[in-house]
Every structure is written in structure tokens, then in C-alpha cells.
């Protein structure tokens, strides 16, 4: 991969026709170190947020040794990329063949489940293994989160006791896991969920060895500035300390977004301007799925030299495909004189951005290049963009 000093440098030097993915390994490594040093337990990276092998290697360098995988393809990918890593298969509904391959071929010992059927499947597929860590996924509220994960998975509290007792019978180590929803804007999401965990443990009277608070740790986006992550960690630690679990119980978390959002951004070119609508060369079927389909606002910056001094106005974007759905409403704040041929950086796309690309309509992404300037926002450093980077308008 080519290395450049800055996003602006890439635009100026390459003038790329296709959208370019800009990656910042230093930002991902910083996030990994933050979690591995400050989270009061073990941090598993949720691979679905961004499965790029380069990112996996970077997170490993930053101290992340455990990986939350959700499909057999993710199991194989991480096993191949990081042979020393510990894999945890945390999708509560798995193919029996996937469980068997994970257990017998890739050494996976940790699985999640939220039903008696899945427990039976795990027992059958592992031929009654006695060395399993089984995590029962509890349904919790997504009230504090921007993206709900409350409907699809998780056993209800009322049904948790019987599943916990049955799982305890076959598990070497018993865990309880949950997911508060993605981009949880308040630590209270976790204290509320932990109250439900406590109720489940009390109702089942089982010994619990692992509490896994899942993902949901936020990143920074326009209009969404979360409290510092340390507050989340403190809240979780306090709740964990007061749970009726065994003395040697472990605390885990599964951040996806928080470890990967700052890793990547996108360099796009304006192909047409129609009023306050910009037609750009990436979109809903590319790295901007969330911007199109759930109205997520990402930070944007015009990369032009000399810098524009025009006042900012709110733009919407059209992507390159031939349908109306390829539209990102924004508003994306850019200088009023933004025009055809300009390059724009769209930030914070390392999580659920680059991972979701398709090649629909023949529009694929171009190169991936490494840059060593700062991401457009960061939860892990005070300094955002160095002042010497010209042409930048940082809008949060
Ligand atoms: C998606 C997912 C995660 C990661 O969630 P983030 O909100 O990106 O941190 C963690 N655990 C499970 C089980 C998931 O499905």
C-alpha cells in the first residue's frame, strides 16, 4: 500500500478518478491500545465492523488478542490472518456445520446462544465437548443507542433462568452476554443492562464465569459527541463489581465501531453539482450505506488548495448508480463554492462503511492508501487535525 502524508496530499498527487479509501493504522492502533489498557477486562474486536486483514493485524499490534466472529468466513479469515488469536463465535444462530468446523478445525471454544435449540446444536456439533465457554445472550433495551439490536437476538429475562440452568449443565464456563445497540450515547445503557443481568443470575441461581457487555461503544460523528469512554468503563466496572458472580469471573467487551471507525475515510470526487446536491463517485452501494439508509451523518471536508473561504452550506449527495435510492441526505456542510472536480473527504468510515461495499452497477472503489494525518475526529486524542493541513473544514 502506498503511503502519503495527508488526505489533501493524496487528492493533489493522485487526482483519483475512483473513490479512494484512506486508512490510518496509527489511529486504529491507538484505539486498540486504549481498550487493551483501559477497559477493566478483556476486549474482543467485533470483526463485522471492518474485516480488513490489515486492520486485524494493526489491532493485534495494539494488544487485541481476542476476536468476536459471527460467520464461518470470519472464523477462517481471522484464523488465517492471526493464527495466535482467540476466536469467540458470538452469533446466537449458527449453522451446525459452522460450529463443527469452528470447534474441530479452528480451535474455537467460545460460543453464544439464546435458545435451547442452539444449545442442542452446539452440543451435537461439538460431539458433547466438555471444554466450552457458552455465553447466553440476554435481550436488553436499545434505548440509549442510535442503532437497535434489541429485536433479533437475546433471550427474554422471563425465559433466561431455564436456559442458563441448561447451559450450565454442559458448559465448562458459563457466560452472559448482551448488546445494548450500536453507538450507545450514554453509559447508562450498560448499567441498565447489567441490572437485567443481575436479575437473570438471581432467578437462575447459577455460577457465572464471564460477563460480556458486548459492543455499542460510540465514536464521534456530527451531532453525536458522546461522553468520554472512560465514563463507560467506570460505569461497567462498578456494575460488574456488584454482580453476584464467581470471584474469578471475567469481564469482556466486544467493541466494533469504537475500534475501527477512525481507521478509514473516503476520498471522493464531485462529478456534478445541481444546486445544493453534489453527485459524487461513491454512495449507498459503496461505503455510504449508513449515510443513505439510516441518515447517518459523517464529517466532511473539502480538499482544495488554496483553501476555499466561502461560507459553509448544507449539501446532500447523490452516489454514482442509476437509481434515486443512491442518495445521502446529510446535510453535509461544505463551502458554498464546492464544484465539479473538487475532492471531498468523508470521515469516520472505518466502521460499517468500507465493510459494506458492493460492486453494483459497475461502480467499485479504487485504491486504498495509508495516510498518517489525524482522522477527522477522535475519541482517543485531543489534537484532531494538525493546523498545517490546508483546505480543511472540520465539521462535527
Ligand atoms: C455488531 C456486534 C458487535 C459490535 O458492535 P459495535 O456497536 O460496533 O461496537 C459486538 N457484538 C456483537 C454480538 C455484535 O453483533
Automatic annotation (TrEMBL):
Where in the numbering of this chain does the Orn/DAP/Arg decarboxylase 2 C-terminal domain appear? 262-346
EC identifiers of the protein: 4.1.1.17
- The regions listed as transmembrane in this protein's record are none
UniProt catalytic activity: L-ornithine + H(+) = putrescine + CO2
Matches recorded under Pfam families: Orn_Arg_deC_N, Orn_DAP_Arg_deC
Q: Which SUPFAM superfamilies match?
A: Alanine racemase C-terminal domain-like (SSF50621), PLP-binding barrel (SSF51419)
Q: In which pathway does it act?
A: Amine and polyamine biosynthesis; putrescine biosynthesis via L-ornithine pathway; putrescine from L-ornithine: step 1/1
- Source species, domain of life: Bacteria
For the protein in the UniProt heading, the enzyme class is lyase
Alphabetical keyword list: Lyase, Pyridoxal phosphate
UniProt record similarity statement: Belongs to the Orn/Lys/Arg decarboxylase class-II family.
- What is the protein name given in its UniProt record? ornithine decarboxylase
Species in which this protein is naturally found:
Sphingomonas abietis
